[in-house]
């Protein structure tokens, strides 16, 4: 399915570091690239590991205000000047030395991913798919940081695609937190369909992402939110994905699919309350890959995102993502290479996982099999379908 896949990576990305106490530990990035290499994915003929260039101020201006970028630059030089005015310098998103430079590098990687996919595999520097697992910083607003995010690289990738001539871009966010910054950036733009599946904002940051958030006056139905009840596991999570994402992508027919693959839906994640397994995440990666080929001509940009089980979950999930994109899916029963587990022990003093599975199946019952009015997940699904399907000429009750 895939002829050319770019993984955007630079060791400098591990400098995105809020401090040793902060849950967003950059060791998760180091362990991910090293697990990708431990499985030999970087040697596949289909895959290139590409060092990105940093986003320029002009690039950042596609989404962020000049005043905000200037404030990030100032705090990057002297973090003590950050007082929370622009969203950083808080306990949630502290300022740190060099924050502009590393954030611009991560943003540049997603912009480079957009450019490579738009060129296509026929171009020497083009690709079918491109992955920036250091990205997915979906909470950053045009004029404010938030939720550990400085620059909103998925929004910048989408903005670059629109500049290059894309007429329709779909964004699918499967992080446990609402993709609020990307929704905000394209709230009133019908060229961009944003779909976010997340834990209900009644229980989780950022407190937005209800089903009735459907887009601005010129783009009603183009912001799509599935607010899921806490505690749900694989079958319910995948059922929600299946009930909303494929029919909307089939109708929208995007030129490019951009996806965000935060792993914090996992049962072991310390910052949220879903109970999803690695195996369900792997199923979602594969589904998005297939949907890109089915509805977007194979043009797919995938980013990382949240994920705070930094040893057991993040590296395995994103290694599965890269392998899936390259067309060389890793069997869940495969053992994790011993050398990588030794690295885990040296870097973290923890024992690394032994296999590429949690023992799940990735099975679920499709929503088309019937609606249960007493089921909390089905209630959330139907609320979303009723809110946005009519705007696309789709029947929210079809196949129920």
UniProtKB/TrEMBL annotation:
It holds the Pfam family Hist_deacetyl. One of its GO terms (biological process) is acetoin catabolic process. CDD domains: HDAC_AcuC_like (cd09994). Pathway: Ketone degradation; acetoin degradation. Coiled coil: none annotated. InterPro entries: AcuC, HDACs, His_deacetylse_dom, His_deacetylse_dom_sf, Ureohydrolase_dom_sf. Residues 22-323 form the Histone deacetylase domain. GO terms for molecular function: histone deacetylase activity. Gene3D superfamilies: Histone deacetylase domain (3.40.800.20). Belongs to the histone deacetylase family. This is Acetoin utilization protein AcuC.
């Amino acid at each position: 399915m895939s002829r050319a896949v770019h993984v955007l990576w630079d060791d400098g990305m591990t400098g995105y570091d809020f401090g040793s106490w902060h849950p967003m530990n950059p060791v998760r990035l180091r362990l991910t690239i090293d697990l990708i290499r431990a499985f030999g994915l970087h040697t596949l003929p289909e895959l290139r590991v590409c060092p990105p260039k940093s986003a320029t101020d002009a690039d950042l201006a596609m989404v962020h205000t000049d005043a905000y970028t200037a404030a990030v630059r100032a705090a990057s030089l002297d973090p003590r000047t950050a007082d929370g005015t622009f969203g950083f310098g808080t306990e949630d998103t502290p300022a740190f030395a060099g924050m502009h430079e590393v954030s611009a590098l991560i943003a540049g990687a997603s912009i480079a991913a957009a450019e490579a996919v738009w060129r296509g595999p026929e171009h020497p520097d083009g690709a079918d798919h491109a992955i920036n697992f250091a990205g997915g910083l979906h909470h950053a607003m045009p004029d404010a940081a938030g939720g550990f995010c400085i620059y909103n690289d998925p929004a910048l990738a989408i903005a670059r695609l629109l500049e290059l001539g894309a007429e329709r871009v779909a964004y699918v966010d499967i992080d446990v937190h609402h993709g609020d910054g990307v929704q905000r950036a394209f709230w009133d733009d019908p060229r961009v369909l944003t779909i976010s599946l997340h834990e209900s904002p009644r229980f989780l940051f950022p407190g937005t992402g209800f089903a009735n958030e459907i887009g601005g006056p010129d783009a009603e139905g183009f912001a799509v939110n599935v607010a899921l009840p806490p505690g749900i596991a694989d079958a319910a999570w995948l059922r929600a994905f299946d009930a909303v994402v494929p029919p909307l992508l089939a109708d929208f027919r995007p030129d490019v699919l951009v996806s965000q693959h935060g792993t914090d839906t996992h049962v072991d994640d310390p910052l949220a309350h879903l109970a999803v397994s690695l195996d369900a995440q792997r199923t979602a990666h594969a589904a998005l890959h297939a949907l890109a080929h089915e509805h977007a001509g194979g043009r797919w940009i995938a980013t990382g995102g949240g994920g705070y089980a930094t040893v057991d979950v993040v590296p395995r999930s994103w290694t599965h993502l890269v392998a899936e994109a390259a067309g060389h899916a890793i069997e869940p029963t495969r053992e994790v290479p011993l050398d990588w587990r030794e690295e885990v022990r040296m870097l973290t003093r923890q024992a690394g996982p032994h296999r590429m599975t949690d023992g799940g199946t990735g099975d679920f019952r499709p929503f088309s099999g019937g609606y249960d009015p007493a089921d909390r997940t089905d209630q959330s699904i139907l609320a979303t379908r009723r809110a946005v399907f009519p705007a696309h000429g789709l029947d929210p009750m079809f196949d129920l």
